Amino acid sequence: MTKSIRLLGALIVFVLLAAGCSPAASTPAINQATAHVLTLYAVLTESAPQQNTTPTNPIQLASATPGFPTGTPTPTPTSINPTDLPSVTPTSSLLPTPCYRAYFVKDVTIPDYYDKLAPGETFVKTWRLKNTGTCNWPANTLIVFLSGSQMDAPDSEDIGGGVAVGDEVDISLTMKAPSTTGTYTGYYMLKIPNQGRFGIGDAGNQSFWVIIVVSSSVSKTPSPSKTVGTPQPTKTKTYTPSPTATPTGSPTLTPTMTPTCPGGYPVC
Q1: DSSP alpha helices (H): ranges in 76-203?
Q2: Does an H or E element contain 220, and which?
Q3: Does residue 33 sit within a domain?
Q4: pLDDT of residue 227
Q5: 102-107 and 116-117 as β-strands: parallel, antiparallel, unpaired?
Q6: What is the mean pLDDT of residues 79-97?
Q7: Domain ends where: 214, 238, 259?
Q8: Which of 180, 195, 214 is the last residue of a domain?
Q9: Distance of CA 103 to CAs 6, 96, 97, 187, Å?
């Protein structure tokens, strides 16, 4: 192609020089020469080899994943373990306050796992609870055994009176440790006759408990007993009357008799 262009350029220069050097040349002759030159240029251009514009190694795209080269793995999203996500627990402020609800304040006696008892030992368990509901507890409120080890406690017992909203109360039960060593737990709730049970927790539906540890290394503490002594004889107070005072009277005056003279004269 480059060689043809060079040949065409030389031919044009030759024609122009020939036309310029011949004063007798006419304009039609020049035009005819120019036409021959253009025809020759067209022939040379058409016969020149055409340049191939198609790339020899085009990029092959994966038919299954457009936009990615062949052999590139498709990214897989990482799975999320639900246990790694924080759990959302509704706060108690969103729950309505129940009518009857208790709050555990403390163990007044027999704290959990603290005091070890001897097998068969009698003890008194006392809880301190607070009325955190919206209703007063009536005077006939009971503490009732729910499950676990009852430890000779009664099935139910009166708590001792009514409790106003916001007030605290100590509730006691007399129990007896089992004869076998080990750890024992008893669960309790409160109950209003004809209205059902209630307890602690946000909804007032959880139990409170007593936990004891019975150990053979602990000596049984004897229960204090009343000693009946010999009654003392009743002392009788002897009353001694005071002596009666004898009134002393005034002495009787004996009048002195004045002799009367005859005639009534004092002096005879």
Answers
A1: none
A2: none
A3: yes
A4: 38
A5: unpaired
A6: 54
A7: 214
A8: 214
A9: 110, 16, 12, 15
